[in-house]
Amino acid sequence: MNSKRTVYVGNIPIGGKHPVVIQSMTNTKTEDYKSTLEQINNLYRKGAQIVRVSYPDIKCKDSLKKIVKYSPCPIIADIHFDYKLAISAIDIGCAKIRINPGNISKRNLSEIIKVAKEKDVPIRIGVNGGSLEKEILKKYNYPSSDALFESIKKSVEFFLDKGFDKLVLSVKSSDVIEMIKANLKLKELNFPVHLGVTEAGGLLRGSIKNSIGISYLLLNGVGDTIRVSLSDSPIYEIDTAKIILSSIHMSSNVPDVIACPTCSRTTFDVVSVQKEVEKILENVNKNVKVAVMGCVVNGPGEAKDADIGITGGQGIGVLFKKGEIIKKGPIDEVLKNFYEELKKYGK
């Protein structure tokens, strides 16, 4: 979206004028290809366009082959240390490989580049604060944004010297500010950029950290694909990524929800209704704005820009469209009517 270059990962374009691509990573054991494929399918149905899979050792080779063969979306192999695994992943048919040049020798990087050029497979250079080159870490004393940028710039220069430019870049840190500062520097390199805050934490903390870092950078012209890193089910990574893109108007097929925080005027259970609405919207891929308001007097007016909304009071639910009341009744009945209106929306 922000880079002028486009790199194809399988059939998925990253960069150029293409929309931001959502991706995730499996947390199953790669050698258990059935569980891994099950998770990939769940991620794909949820909205993942690309999925990364760890390739920790050669024992996973046969399993990775099956994963690549039966996956509904392109597979990226995540490699550390062993250049032979990177070459194996390319030979297997992975759509992209992710490596950190900081833990692979220049000689072995050259071997990876040679095979990637032959097979026309893109490479993500992934630099993060936990695995910087020793000399760079010594120079800066800690994994600062300048250290991260120097590391990736050196790697890019090496790849270009070898005649390889089918690159996606990422510089990640668990420190949101350093992550932002480092990624802003990537503008000068003009390659597609993969965004994410690494080791961000659990669902709440990790979602907040990633939302801050990813949103800021996308709104400032940096970023072409995103992965929300969470210490939780990767399904939540997709949920959070979709909400981030929708909130900054960079996605057109994700519902938006406006919900009242409630106060003493509230006379019906906004929280439980909002949760029911969220459940209904889980598998909805429409650009629809939904409101759940706590005040029957002001609710429709306050949410008049919502496409569909629910409010209520004294045990009665109210369904409205574009600020106009269309149905009143018991809240369970109004929720059913809401679902029916939602199905009709956009047709």
UniProtKB/TrEMBL annotation:
Binds 1 [4Fe-4S] cluster. GO terms for biological process: isopentenyl diphosphate biosynthetic process, methylerythritol 4-phosphate pathway; terpenoid biosynthetic process. It catalyses: (2E)-4-hydroxy-3-methylbut-2-enyl diphosphate + oxidized [flavodoxin] + H2O + 2 H(+) = 2-C-methyl-D-erythritol 2,4-cyclic diphosphate + reduced [flavodoxin]. Its EC number is 1.17.7.3. Residues 5-241 form the IspG TIM-barrel domain. Pfam families: GcpE (PF04551), GcpE_C (PF26540). Its cofactor is [4Fe-4S] cluster. Residues 257-343 form the IspG C-terminal domain. [4Fe-4S] cluster binds at C260, C263, C295, E302. SUPFAM superfamilies: Dihydropteroate synthetase-like (SSF51717), Nitrite and sulphite reductase 4Fe-4S domain-like (SSF56014). One of its GO terms (molecular function) is 4-hydroxy-3-methylbut-2-enyl-diphosphate synthase activity (flavodoxin). Pathway: Isoprenoid biosynthesis; isopentenyl diphosphate biosynthesis via DXP pathway; isopentenyl diphosphate from 1-deoxy-D-xylulose 5-phosphate: step 5/6. Keywords: 4Fe-4S, Iron, Iron-sulfur, Isoprene biosynthesis, Metal-binding, Oxidoreductase. InterPro entries: Dihydropteroate_synth-like_sf (IPR011005), IspG_bac (IPR016425), IspG_bac-typ (IPR004588), IspG_C (IPR058579), IspG_TIM (IPR058578), NO2/SO3_Rdtase_4Fe4S_sf (IPR045854). It is an enzyme of class 1 (oxidoreductase). HAMAP family: IspG. PANTHER family: 4-HYDROXY-3-METHYLBUT-2-EN-1-YL DIPHOSPHATE SYNTHASE, 4-HYDROXY-3-METHYLBUT-2-EN-1-YL DIPHOSPHATE SYNTHASE (FERREDOXIN), CHLOROPLASTIC. Converts 2C-methyl-D-erythritol 2,4-cyclodiphosphate (ME-2,4cPP) into 1-hydroxy-2-methyl-2-(E)-butenyl 4-diphosphate. Belongs to the IspG family. This is 4-hydroxy-3-methylbut-2-en-1-yl diphosphate synthase (flavodoxin). It comes from candidate division WOR-3 bacterium. The lineage of its organism: Bacteria, Bacteria division WOR-3.
